[in-house]
Each structure stands twice: as C-alpha cells, then as structure tokens.
Amino acid sequence: MTETSPAGVRVGVQIQPQHADYAQIRDAVRRAEDIGVDVVFNWDHFFPLNGDPDGKHFECWTMLGAWAEQTSRVEIGALVTCNSYRNPDLLADMARTVDHISGGRLILGIGAGWFERDYTEYGYEFGTAGSRIADLAQTMPRIRARWAAMNPAPTRDIPVMIGGGGERKTLRVVAEHADIWHSFGDVETLRRKSAILDEHGAAVGRDTAALVTRSLGVDGSDPDEVGDELLAAGVRLFTVGADGPDYDLTQAEKWVRWRDRRA
To answer: Are 104 and 75 in contact (CB under 8 A)?
Structure first.
C-alpha cells in the first residue's frame, strides 16, 4: 500500500499509450503521481484500441522500465500484459528487472490476450479463448519458479494481477494464482463474479476473499454515486483510463478526493 492510501482504498489510472508523443505520456505519468494516485498502469498492445487504428502507439514493457526511473512513489504495471507475447521465463525476468529499477513498485498485471490484430501482425498464434486461458494457467507456475531461481531475487513478492471475468476458466486461474483480480461491470456483476471466484478458491484451497484484492475499472463513473456501494462490495482498487494525446486526469482527481475523504 502506498503512503497516500487510507484504509486500503487505492486509486489507479491507466495511461493509454496511444495517439500521443512519448513526451505527452511522460507528462501524464508525472501529473498522475503528483495528484496522488496509487498506481499508474499502461496496457500491452501494439496498436490503438480506439480512434485511428493506425495512430501513434508505444510498447508496454519498454515504457514500464522508463516509468520505474521517472516515478518515486506510485506502483506501476500493465493493465494487463498479454501472456501470449513473451516467453514466461523472459517475462519473469523483465518483471524482476523493472521491480529492481523501481525499488519494489511493480505489479505484474497479466491476462490471456484477446486483440487479434496484435497477434496476426506480430506473428503470434491467436488460437482460441480456451487455448489462451490454458496457456495463461501454464505460465503462472513458470513465472514464480523463475523468480525463485533468480539472482538477485525480486525485491519483494511481486503482486500478480490477473484480468478477466470468465466464470469457469479465467476465475479459476485467478483463484489459483492471483493476488489482485481486475474486472469490469456494475456492482451486481461484481458481487456475482466475486462469489464465483470464492467458490473456485474453496475448490483449490485458497481463501480468495482474504487473499485476492478486488480491482475494478470505473471509467465514466462518479465516485460520489457508486464509490461507497462498490467499496461495500469489496472493491479496493479503483482504476480510470486516460487517453492521449491530452490525458485528462479530472476523473482520477475525483476518485483521489473520494478516497481521501475515507481516511
């Protein structure tokens, strides 16, 4: 937990690395840390997800290394890394390296992948949703085994965030391997899927209610209208997106003020 986070409530912002020059991205990260967010995320894609499909875009993990040097307080990570794009042992090493550069502020966000253009243009096998989730399940033990074998070891037990809401397969992987579960949707969806996650946790012998932090994307939501209900439903990390080139952080500021009133 960062020094700005009262009572376990945290606010993240996803600086979407599209439609901007890198100087604008760097400035957005600086402003996000200055306004008091707890986590700054990017995403792991090779092309814009909205707007001009051939617009400006930058790579995820190279950027995280730069953010590790640029920032001093916030945690950083991808929301989320695509498991398909890197060998699991290489990804473990990349994460361990950024963990050291940042002084122990990396969150390893990871998911099964979904954006077909990334796969086809960069030469990865797209497969099926089921095969990609199975690959993610096989990846997680390899990452942890590689961390355990490294010299130097990571500075801490790097938190693993797994994104996705598939009730039968993805939430099973979350139950087995995640420290943070990131999802989207309204409070009713969150409650239902959170209960399913805990059922998977019981099946694999993990107390996911206690061990897995609930994280939610809250783009377009007013914290004064939905924040307390989401908090009561178990959400502890609230993340908003900011798109280039301007990176308007107004909504992130609202969530930070809402967080601070709960101190």
So the answer is: no
| Interatomic CA distance for residues 70 and 39, integer angstroms | 14
CA-wise closest residue to 107 among 59, 67, 167, 142: 67
Confidence of residue 4 (pLDDT cuts 50, 70, 90): very low
β-sheet bridge partners, residue 110: 81, 162
Q: Is the pTM of this model over 0.85?
A: yes
Give CA–CA dist 249/197, Å, rounded: 32
Report the candidate in 71, 75, 60 with the shortest Cα–Cα distance to residue 16. 60
- Token pair, residue 141, equals 């033990």
Question: What's CA 40's distance to the chain center, in Å?
Answer: 9
Distances (CA, A) of 145 to 103, 117, 153, 247: 21, 31, 11, 38
Answer whether residue 130 shows pLDDT above 80.
yes
User: Cα–Cα distance between 262 and 9 in angstroms, integer?
Assistant: 8
Mean pLDDT of 174-192: 96
pLDDT band at 7 (very low <50, low <70, confident <90, very high): low
